Amino acid sequence: MTDLFDFKLKSSGFAVMGNPVQHSKSPQIHRLFAQQCGIAIDYDRIQVDAGGFDQAISHFSAHGGAGLNITLPYKVKAWRFCQQGQNSLSHRASQAQAVNTLRFENQGGVFGDNTDGAGLVADLQNNIGFSIQDKSILVVGAGGAARGVIGSLLACCPLRITIANRTVDKATALSEQFGDDVQGVGLDRAADRSFDLIVNGTAASLAGQLPGIGGKCIAKNTLVYDLMYDAQPTIFMNWALAQGAAQAHDGLGMLVEQAAESFYVWHRRRPHSRPVIDALRRF
Ligand code: ATR
User: Fold this and answer.
1) Half-sphere exposure (CA, 13 Å, Cβ side) for 209?
2) Is the pTM of this model over 0.90?
3) Please, are residues 227 and 251 in contact by the beta-carbon 8 Å criterion?
4) What is the rounded distance in angstroms from the CA atom of residue 103 to the CA atom of residue 137?
5) Ligand 1 pocket: which of 99, 150, 199, 202 to mutate (most atoms <8 Å of CB)?
6) Could you tell me if 243 and 259 are in contact, meaning their C-beta atoms sit under 8 angstroms apart?
7) Is residue 267 very low, low, confident or very high in pLDDT (cuts 50, 70, 90)?
8) So what's the pLDDT on residue 155?
9) Which atom from ligand 1 is nearest to the alpha carbon of 207?
10) What does the alpha-carbon distance between residue 64 and residue 40 come to, in Å, rounded to a whole number?
11) Does position 123 have pLDDT exceeding 60, yes or no?
């Protein structure tokens, strides 16, 4: 891991910045993409404390940095950073109110993007073979992870999106930003009907907990997707399969696909994600 303020270090073109970052798979993913495309890149992990975040970005840029991935807990901070001065934001980052990709522009300024939603959609549609159009979708959770994917799901013309959250007010407030096709409810209302797709965007799996939605939201055709991933299927995936869901997927494919989209933002090249997903599953 790089100490950002060690000036003796060779500057690297790309890095993932967050806290913690030691377990991030981003360096491995981007090196595999770069190999595929015949591009030489350096890609580091940089751990920063909250107070030094803006300074760390400027420092990285000043020392030859070309792009950064931003991970927890700094995606909202990065979005705020991109609202300053001559910095700019993509539409999807503005909508998500969070940034996971920064590109340092030649003419100065930093461009902030959010590739998380595109990553989920690419994994669902290209890898899993699930078409979002005309489907009913339940997003469980109304925090940053959920906010980051709703705009991209909506752009694929689903029948409707229901957001269910433990704190109902957060679900309704989030739904109101997306118009009439998105409805916000409490967790108890999530099982009023079944859904074609259920996305778990809560932090519950991290704590080994279930988010507390009833099994009636699952039908025999339901595909369940947990934005979390682990070496083993998550507790939510196991629960959904036990309730009769057709398929349950973790967020590893989305992780690789959001990285592929970041790679495109930086290099204007689209790498093949499938072999990289397969490689990560083997490790
Ligand atoms: P992130 O940026 O990862 O989404 P967050 O903004 O803190 O993190 O949001 C976490 C989400 O997980 C919230 O929707 C939270 O529900 P509340 O808004 O009611 O807090 C949800 N969450 C966390 N733990 C949960 C649990 N055990 N059961 C149900 N929902 C949970």
Assistant:
1) 8
2) yes
3) yes
4) 32
5) 202
6) no
7) very high
8) 96
9) 27
10) 15
11) yes
216 is catalytic: no
CA 108 from centroid of its chain's CA atoms: 27
Catalytic residue of the set 75, 135, 170, 220? 75
CATH class entry, domain 117-250: alpha beta
Residue nearest to atom 7 of ligand 1 (CA): 143
Domain 13-114+254-282 top-level CATH class = alpha beta
**Rounded to 5 degrees, what are φ and ψ at 90?**
-75, 165
Instruction: Please tell me the predicted confidence (pLDDT) of residue 261.
Output: 98
What stretch(es) of the chain map to CATH 3.40.50.720? Answer: 117-250
pLDDT tens for 132-141 read 999 999 999 9
- The kind and range of the H/E element at 279 are helix 274-282
Q: Which ligand 1 atom sits nearest the alpha carbon of residue 170?
A: 18
